[in-house]
Amino acid sequence: MFERFTADARQAVARAQHEALAFAHPWIGTEHLLLGVLAADTPGVALLAEAGVTRSAARLALDQFVGRGGFCERDAAALHSVGIDLAQVRHAAKASFGPSALDRAPVRRCRRRSLFGHYRQQRDATTEKLPFMPRAKRALERASMEAERSRHDQLDLDQLLLGLLDPKGNMAVELIQHLGANPEVVCAQLRARRDDAA
Amino acid sequence: MTESVDTAAAATSQDPQVGLQAVAALRRLAERLEALQVDNARRHGWSWQQIGQALGVSKQAVHKKHGGR
């Protein structure tokens, strides 16, 4: 799957995994891939930055939407309304089971499968390979098609970004929209710029 | 003290959005805690039978859910 990725694009995927771990999310979604891409410096990233989508803004928005360990701010507030202090539960779990125990506890609905469909046996905080969510897989496939269409051997960062800008919608698109940018416009601008360069 | 008063006030809130979101978050929280506690019980040498009994489900159910890890 990743053989055709340029070194930069591979690094973006690796950064996506780090972002997911930093948010204590047990998956890699389009939101993490977007953050991975935003750390780079490409025409596509510049276009997004012009439209107000920077890495720090996107991280902040993700924190609001999804939050750490899959509990967003609104979840915490809702739990508080029934008398449960999420911070305290987190603290207790940490005291008994170690750092980020609650946020890292596996949730059944998220199948622990790697991109190639093998079930993973071992789990370990640092060496762990997180599974890609379906829409993230779709984004990677879209990026591959993008690369094929351009008749380049390699899949670069902006093609990965084009893959993320899925008209059918995903978390990355939602984050971009939330930050006031229009993914379709960014997509069209980026394509135009790439066509000019080619 | 003021915090518990706030909580009591919020708990009586009739906003369905808040109430339903609390229920959904509670389910997820329970799932997380279950995973942590089952792992811990296994590390302490508990059998699936014992864990199932404590959770109020069959040993098969708890093994099917958590045995893969």
Describe this structure in words.
The complex is a heterodimer of chains A (198) and B (69). With 198 residues, chain A is mainly alpha-helical. Chain A has helices spanning 7-22, 30-38, 43-50, 55-65, 73-81, 86-97, 101-104, 134-149, 157-164, 171-178, 183-197. The longest helix of chain A is centred in the first third of the chain and has 16 residues, at 7-22. The relative contact order of chain A is 0.19. The model of chain A is unreliable at 109-114 and 117-126 (pLDDT under 50). Chain B is 78% helix and 0% strand. In chain B, helix 3 crosses helix 4. The radius of gyration of chain B is 17 Å and the shape is elongated. In chain B, 13% of the residues are buried. Chain A binds chain B through residues 69-71, 74-84, 86, 89, 93, 96-97, 101-103, 105-108, 119, 123, and chain B through 7-8, 10-11, 13, 18-19, 21-22, 24-26, 28-29, 31-33, 35-36, 40, 65, 68-69.
Features:
heterodimer, A: 198 residues, mainly alpha, Double Clp-N motif, 0% strand, B: 69 residues, 78% helix, elongated, disordered N terminus
Number of helices of chain B: 4
Number of strands of chain A: 0
| Helix share, percent of chain A | 55-70%
Structural class of chain B: mainly alpha
Globular, elongated, flat, extended or rod-shaped: what is the shape of chain A?
elongated
Report the order of strands and helices of chain A: HHHHHHHHHHH
Q: Largest sheet of chain A, if any?
A: none
CATH architecture annotation name of chain A: Orthogonal Bundle
State the separation between the terminal residues of chain A, measured CA to CA: 25 Å
Q: Quick summary of this structure?
A:
Chain A has 198 residues and is an all-alpha fold. Chain A has helices spanning 7-22, 30-38, 43-50, 55-65, 73-81, 86-97, 101-104, 134-149, 157-164, 171-178, 183-197.
